[in-house]
Structure formats: C-alpha cells, structure tokens
Description:
Blueprint: E1 6-7, E2 10-11, E3 15-19, H1 23-29, H2 34-55, E4 59-66, H3 74-97, E5 101-105, H4 113-126, E6 133-140, H5 142-159, H6 164-168, H7 172-176, E7 189-192, E8 211-214, H8 224-236
Parallel strand pairs: 3-4, 3-7, 4-6, 5-6, 7-8
Antiparallel strand pairs: 1-2
The protein binds 3-methylbut-3-enyl trihydrogen diphosphate (2 copies) and magnesium ion.
One 3-methylbut-3-enyl trihydrogen diphosphate binds at residues 20-25, 65, 69, 80, 194.
Amino acid sequence: MTEGTQSEDRSIPVHIAIILDGNGRWAKAHGLPRSLGHRQGCETLERIVEDCARLGVQYLTVYGFSTENWKRSEEEVGALMSLFRLYMKKLIRVANENNVRARMIGERSRFAADIREGIDRLETETSGNTGMTFVFAVNYGSRDEILRAVRHYAMDAVREGKTEEEIAALSEAAFSGYLDTAGMPDPDLVIRTSGEQRLSNYLLWQCAYAEYYFTPVLWPDFGRAELLRAIEEYNRRSRRFGGR
Ligand code: IPE
Ligand code: IPE
Ligand code: MG
C-alpha cells in the first residue's frame, strides 16, 4: 500500500472516502426543512473538495445518494434531484479551479436524462485536470455494484467462450476491474459524520482494510478542522493488512 504525501509531519491518506450524513438532523435542529439541510450539505462538500485537494489527497470518494435513498419521500427525492442539477454545474467550476478530475460511480440509468447529461458534462469538462480525483457516488450501493460486476464478468465469459479453468482463475485484481472504482486504489480512511457507525452499503469490497473515523458532527457542520482531526487519528493508527 502506498504511503500518502508528507505534509506538516502528517501522512495524508491517498484515498479518503466520506459517508456524509446528518443533513436532515441539522435542518431539524435549525427549524428548517430537510431540503435546506441538503443544500447546506452541498456547500460543505464544495469546501471539503477544496480542502482535500489542497492537502494532497489523491482520491476523495463521497457518498451522495444511495440505492436505498429512493425510498425517501417523493418530496425529498425531488429536492435532492433539483440539487444535483444545480450542483453538477457548480462542481464543474469548483473542480476546474482546483485542478480536480470529477467522476461518478453508481448506476446512472435511473436518473432523468438531463441529470445524466449533467454527469457526463462534469466528467468530460474536468477530465483534463491532473490533481485530485473526486468521485461522487450517486444511486450507488455496493451490493448493486458487485452484482453488476458479476453480471458483466459472466457476460464477457460467455461471449469470449472462457473455459472453466479460466473462470476459476479469476483474480481479485481482475474482478476489481469490473467494479465502478476500476483503476482506483482502495480507501485508506473512511469518515462518517452524524454519529452513525455503519457502512450503509458503501464500498464494501474496497473498504476491506480501511481505517474508520466516526464523528458526531453533522455533515453541514463538518469543516477543515474536523477533517484534520480525522487525518491525525488516522496517523495514530498502526495500519495492518493481515498476516503481520
Ligand atoms: C445525508 O443526510 C444525505 C443523504 C443521505 C442524501 P441525511 O438526509 O441522511 O440526514 P439524516 O440522517 O436524516 O440526519
Ligand atoms: C447513507 O446515509 C447514504 C448516503 C450518505 C448517501 P443514510 O442516512 O441514507 O443511511 P442510513 O439509512 O442511516 O443507513
Ligand atoms: Mg442519514
């Protein structure tokens, strides 16, 4: 596993994954509708993308909308879709100002055509950037991702007429290439806000050896200081990858 860049005596994780949570509780605490919590959460996201890029993080993967989140009220899902429309454009600017390449993971076909186009534009218009890769997980669920990968592999195997021996020789590295995160290193540090301590179907395969940092801070209140605390805590851990 590669070590992160050294900065101010800290080792910066190569890949940070964030499960942003607590927008709804933040709104409730401020007597506001949930949609305003999400809006505030988007602003936090912009700042964190900038902070991570400046710190030298190479990959930032943020969980924005899960495959399970469609079960929320029609009103809330509608508000989130409107926010995506708006923020997809804003993210192009934030990404380009910070030399950040943006990518989406998750299953896109369920989104309206204009949102899919927005995702395509965000990826194309930031593809020439050479700094941090920012990955936004929308309509993402790990089980869904793994199932799609298995189906894809099986279809390829049939089409290419693979033998039983060839199928039995499928390696972890080759299978990883079928996941949405193909080509990316696994997360080193996973941060979840709002006091919840679960993965909620996020990057199950990829987080096999990640370190976890849970904070009670609600996502709209998450800032650079809390990000640095998470990185400091990560630096205090002695990382093990089995067998040692
Ligand atoms: C996270 O905040 C944003 C999404 C999951 C879209 P929540 O909306 O889950 O906020 P809480 O958990 O209800 O406070
Ligand atoms: C996880 O948050 C999904 C995202 C952050 C997008 P949720 O708030 O939806 O997760 P649960 O329902 O508390 O597990
Ligand atoms: Mg939540």
